[in-house]
Amino acid sequence: MSIIFSEEEVALHNTLDDCWIIANGNVYNVTTFINRHPGGKFVIKSNAGSNVTKHFKYHSQKSHKIWEKYLIGEISKSTQCGCL
Fold it and tell me: Rounded to an integer, what distance in angstroms lies between the CA atom of residue 41 and that of residue 62?
């Protein structure tokens, strides 16, 4: 069973030391990946705590596999904003 988070809860994790993001209804804790991101840490920091679904689709299949390592749960269906 997956852990369910609200968008408001994810939004609280918006720093370089505690960074979560949302993509396609899933929640990722990317804190330990920030310094390895090919586009630089501030690309992730500028989107910390938010829905990055529109960015997710531009990543390669190889990148999507990397994202799987950081999956921690999903967004509550009742709080999804539908931001695509």
Answer: 19
SS3 label, residue 72: strand
CB 50 within 8 A of CB 21: yes
10-residue mean pLDDT profile of the chain (84 residues): values are 91 96 96 90 92 89 90 83 49
| Closest to 49 in 3D by CA, of 12, 74, 2 | 12
In this prediction, residue 79 carries a pLDDT of 52
**Amino acid at the residue 29:** N
Neighbours of 74 (CB within 10 A): 16
Chain Cα centroid distance, residue 30: 7
The closest of 79, 82, 52, 81 to 67, measured between CA atoms, is 52
Q: How far apart are CA 43 and CA 63, in angstroms?
A: 15
